[in-house]
Design brief:
71% helix, mainly alpha
Length: 101
Amino acid sequence: MLQTLIGEARHNIPLAEALTNTFVLPMRRRMEEITKRAAERGKIPPVEHADLLGDLVLGPMVSRFFLTPLPPDQVDAATATQTADRLLPFLLRAVGHTEHA
C-alpha cells in the first residue's frame, strides 16, 4: 500500500503534503531530538546537521521495511532497532563525522 501511496503522491499534491506532514516531518523532528539527546549524553559526537539525519534514516528504513518484501518474522521492533544501529556509523559519517563515539 505504501508503494501505491508514494507513487500516487508524485502526481497528487494534497496526498504528498499529507504524507509529508504526517510522516516525514515528524520523523525528521524526532530524529533531530534523538540525535541531540544522544550527543548531550556523550553517546555520539555532536552533529551539526541533525535535521538531515531524519532524511538519512527515513530513506533506508522505508526502503528496507516498506518497499522491500521481507518475511513477516523479519519485520519487528528489534529488527528495526538493529538496522538503525547498523546505519548509525554511516549516517554520522554522512553528516561529517569520521568516527563513531
